[in-house]
Structure formats: C-alpha cells, structure tokens
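This section describes the prediction task in plain terms. A model, or a person checking by hand, is given the sequence of a single protein chain and must write out its three-dimensional structure as a string of tokens. No templates, partner chains or ligands are provided. The sample shown here is typical of the held-out split.
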Amino acid sequence: MAEPVRLSKLMSERGLCSRREADSYIEKGLVFVDGRRVSELGTKVDPDCAIRLDTQASAQQQQRVTLLLHKPVGYVSGQPEPGYQPAVTLIRPDSRWRDDRSPQHFERTQLKGLAPAGRLDIDSTGLLVLTQDGRIAKQLIGDDSDIEKEYLVRVEGRLDEKGLALLNHGLSLDGRALRPARVSWQNTDQLRFILKEGRKRQIRRMCERVGLRVVGLKRVRIGRVRLGDLPLGQWRYVRSDERF
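The expected answer:
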C-alpha cells in the first residue's frame, strides 16, 4: 500500500492550486477527500484519493487573473531594487493595450497577490506573465515545468560551429549542467534561444562562455502564448482560449 502524503502537496502536484492556496482552502474547510470534508492542516491522505474543491474555492479561482506585460528595460520583474520600479507598477488602466479583446474589467483588487511567473532581467525586454493563480505559476516555474521560453538575442563577437553546439548542449552554470537548449542564428547578429529553464541571467552567461556579448535580449514566447503585437510597456489579459 502506498505511503500517505500531505494533502496540500498532493493538491499542488495535481495542479489544483499552489501548496499555499491548498493550506488556505483546507483551513477554511473547502476541500473534500473521497467525499469527506477536511479542515485540519497537515492531514495526510492516500495518494490515489479523490479530491474535490468546494464551489466557493472554485469560484475564487475563476476570479483570479493572469496578465501579459511587454516589459521595458529598466524595470525589475520581481522584488523592487533601489532606484528601480517593479514591472507590476505598469499594470494600470491607462497602460492596458487598447486592442485587448478580453471582456475582463480592470479592478484594483486584481493587483493583490499579482506576481511574476518567472524572471526577466532588468536589462531585458519582452513577455512577462503576472498572475494571481498559483496553478499558472506552478505550470510555468515549478520544478517539473517543461514549458518552452523563446528569446531573440542580439550579440557581438564571433561564434564558430563548436561554440554554437555548446550553446545547444554542453554548458554548465554554477556547477550544474544546463538542460539541452535549441539555439540557432536568426540573422547575422541575432540568435534565437529556446529554453526550458530560467537560471539567473542564464542567456547572458551562456553567451559569455562562448565569447559573445549580449547587446539586446527580448522574450517573445512562453509555451504557446506569444508576445505578438503587444506594445512596449503595455499589458493585456490572457484570453480564456489561450493555454500555455
């Protein structure tokens, strides 16, 4: 018989919510296991059990928003740094893309708990996902995330076939091997990177290892969602038909 596991951990693994959200739902008595309401934190359950959220919890999840921002250079994606503003300060009614087709109305409550699902360096631009939904965050930045991120990277320097091969597979950072990437020339001074991980300043450091200097970096895709025509410094809601 399988060993019991913490209910909150199992809920996160199944993509029902984040572990923090799971603890909140359990504490409020909004979780049912095999038809029985569970309200005690730390409860362990059979890993094959049936888990259901109360309609109140499901309704709360439906109200959570996920946004796409075209982050400019000079904004930090996460915690504010001295002299710099976090990207979330760009989420205002006047900076919403006028071509946003979502029927969603902007409310200030949507800023509560809105956090970036993945980093984008202060000197990089492009697609940044901000979400209130722990399920989306886990999908994009969880330890087992397999979501592709695509970047256009303008570089200076010379790169031979051996260096290009190393960018695709064979480099290590901080003593840990990098996962295989897909790196190819887009034009004479621009590379296309497709990664499934996001270590700190990863692309810039990868390029340094093969003798290149990054002079411009833009993220254009996360999973199946593209930056598209979203203007610099503006944002839009993720549509109901979009999936990462």
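For orientation: The mean pLDDT is 91.
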